[in-house]
Design a protein that fits this description.
two-stranded antiparallel sheet; 12 strands; 2 helices; alpha+beta; 234 residues
């Protein structure tokens, strides 16, 4: 006689209360993780922007070594005593978008660099990836149809990198109207800016010079308060 088969344990489904409890726990964990994820991503973006800003400054220095001048095109022809600011026209008082600079550094036959006027050797001094979303370009060039300036380089927050070049060759970049806490003496002894030839910066997450909401308006640092801007010379 065969022994009776053991009864299988009955499957037990989750109750509605148990499901709601699990969902609530997951929601709480997600709420706790989101701020951490934002902080991590902000740090990643700052590192990326810092690296790119340094690469841009290095590319301009290489151009200056090759041609004996900065890639300022014809912007300073009528006013050779001022430095050149290219990038965000509204927030950084730039005279033009940074696309014209990168047309030169990328040896592109467009804009002011038509016929490679300012890069006749057609050397590519700088290039990087194309922004993945042309409708909201970030972390790359806007090449092709999209929302923004064709050929401009955008930071991780969707703003143009701003570049200041010592176009009057007085060994100082003039940061008047940008950062009031960076000073240096030009050859004539006037305090006007930093004793460097090229400065590159990102306006950071808030898209402003300094961080107005933190009390750092028009400054990079104010006491123990530091803006979210990313500077090549810091």
């Amino acid at each position: 006689m065969n022994p009776p088969a053991q009864a299988r344990p009955a499957l037990r489904a989750f109750t509605l209360i148990e499901l709601l409890t699990v969902i609530t726990i997951i929601a709480i964990l997600m709420a706790l993780l989101f701020p951490v994820i934002r902080v991590v991503m902000d740090h990643v973006h700052k590192v990326q922007a810092k690296t790119t800003a340094g690469q841009i400054a290095a590319a301009i220095a290489q151009y200056q070594t090759e041609y004996g001048k900065y890639p300022v095109a014809d912007y300073t022809a009528n006013n050779p005593t001022v430095d050149l600011v290219l990038g965000d026209r509204t927030k950084a008082n730039a005279v033009d978008d940074n696309a014209e600079l990168f047309n030169i550094l990328r040896a592109l036959n467009v804009g002011k660099n038509t016929d490679n006027t300012y890069n006749p050797k057609r050397v590519i001094y700088f290039d990087t990836k194309i922004a993945s979303n042309p409708s909201a370009p970030k972390s790359g060039f806007l090449d092709g149809p999209g929302t923004g300036v064709q050929g401009a380089l955008y930071d991780p927050w969707g703003k143009q990198y701003t570049i200041v070049m010592d176009a009057n060759y007085n060994q100082v970049i003039n940061l008047t109207g940008l950062y009031s806490d960076f000073t240096g003496k030009s050859q004539d002894g006037v305090d006007t800016g930093m004793r460097i030839g090229v400065g590159v910066f990102s306006l950071g997450k808030d898209g402003e010079i300094g961080s107005p909401k933190d009390g750092v308006t028009g400054m990079y640092r104010n006491g123990d308060k530091i803006s979210d801007d990313v500077l090549s010379w810091q």
